[in-house]
Design brief:
By secondary structure, the chain is α+β, with helices and mostly antiparallel strands. It has one domain: YefM-like fold. The protein contains 3 helices and 3 strands. The protein has a 3-stranded mixed β-sheet with strand order 1-2-3. A hairpin with a 2-residue loop joins strand 2 and strand 3.
């Protein structure tokens, strides 16, 4: 069965086992698709790229909340009263 590989670089599980950090470095900061029998098994994502992905996901979620609340009644609050 054919699968889309959502990374510009790929490596086999054997290559990952032999040289984990070398495999990560081949992605040059991006994800590396790890293949098992020529099918993507998982993606190896550097910490910096994963953190950026999580930040972006959080922004999308916050934007969805803001969109859902658009048009609701505004309640003015004085911070000193809290």
């Amino acid at each position: 069965m054919a699968s889309a590989i959502l990374a510009t670089m790929s490596a086999s599980i054997s290559e990952l086992k032999k040289n984990p950090m070398g495999t990560v470095e081949t992605g040059e900061g991006g994800a590396v698709a790890i293949l098992n029998h020529n099918t993507p098994a998982f993606y190896c994502v550097p910490a910096k790229a994963y953190e950026a992905l999580m930040d972006r996901l959080e922004n999308f979620e916050l934007n969805a909340i803001a969109d859902a609340r658009q048009g609701q009644k505004v309640i003015k609050v004085d911070l000193d009263d809290l």
